[in-house]
Write a structure and sequence with these properties.
The complex is a heterodimer of chains A (203) and B (231). With 203 residues, chain A is an all-alpha fold. In chain A, 76% of the residues lie in helices and 0% in strands. In chain B, β7, α7 and β8 form a beta-alpha-beta unit. The radius of gyration of chain B is 18 Å and the shape is globular. Classes of the chains: A mainly alpha (203), B alpha/beta (231). The interface between A and B is medium-sized, with 33 and 36 residues.
Chain lengths: 203, 231
Amino acid sequence: MRNPLTLGIHVPGDTIWHRIPAGPKLVGLVLVGIGVIALRGPWPPVATLVLAVGINRWAGVPTATTLRGLRPFLVVVAILAAFQTWQRGWPVAVEVVATTITLVVAATTYTATTPMDDLVGAIVRGLRPFRRIGVRPQKVALAFSLMITAVPTVSTVFHETRDAARARGLERSVRANLVPFAIRVVAHAYATGDALAARGLDD
Amino acid sequence: MATIEIDDVSLVVPRGDEDVAILNRVSVTLTERRVSLVGANGSGKSTVARLVNGLVAPTSGTVRLDGLDVAEHGPAVRRRVGFVFTQPAAQLVMPTVAEDVALSLRRSIPDKRERARRVSEVLASFGLADLADAPVHALSGGQQQMLALAGVLATEPEVVVADEPTTLLDLRNAAAIGERLLALEQQLVLVTHDLDLAQRCDRTLVVDGGRIVFDGEPAEAVARYRALAAA
């Protein structure tokens, strides 16, 4: 299978990062994310990135897994770096790039050390108090896990659509690339809806 | 075995300015352990299968499972009827193999450890134990379809509906999935283009133009279908 993205793929292990319960770890991830974004100057985000990579290594996440998780963001990061260097100078570019990569590495470490079942359970427990205002925790948790699972599927559809356009000599046609891509993604969403209904997860 | 009653069911959908009949006054009662449906693409056979667990609602007529109206009791019926799709990738909705089977069991087995134990059992029985932590999108087509079947059977449904489950598979995987389906203790409603598989069922329906044009002994049904296709 082409382009096996790793977002949401659990890597079994017995490190402290695997043992921390999914809920507190998720809260920690959110706080770290907010904290990293709030940092200013080039060096604090770089230090945070070094720390994030260290934790990633400590958690035993294979380097290849982390790099595959980063790969889709590299183009965006390169564009951001060039733009920020041009507009606001290299210190800001370093800050933005380090912050972005830190967030991706931290998220990869989280999903690699947390079984989806635990994550779903944590979201359900965390949202329980909001039932009284109409929130349905099971549905939110399922939507969250579906979103993570859909990333590699959408990526595969993108590559297949691009290959199909190339095969017809239409690689430069935006229409030949985007229209079938959009149609296939929507069709996949419908098929997933049917599958959820068939598995009794629609009620 | 459950009694599946499809009573005078029609399904009409708008297409452009006109209404098109996908099913036209279909009536059949299924009580056999293994029933196959054959027919050309677009004949309506998959739609008949989808009626059984309420994925498709008829425009008129009723579908019942042991007297339970599918339209009124959809969730209850779906807990008793498992569905295997043609394209397994759409059916697998969690990131890894074990997590996908666990999703099927979240309601029936709330305890996490007990659920994990059951998941291990199911995966072992389907030869998928070594792939428990593998990403579902990295599996081969045959492994994905086997996982989809495992996810359905984990909940121990009374009826399994399979909509062309071997169409996208190579010969070896198609044979493995076919054998697995035919060996089920559960009642099986099998939509297929594999006429050998269809003939090994207890009863075969031939669907054409939204109608059941033959209903009976599998070998004769397949002969009728071949004649229909050649005409």
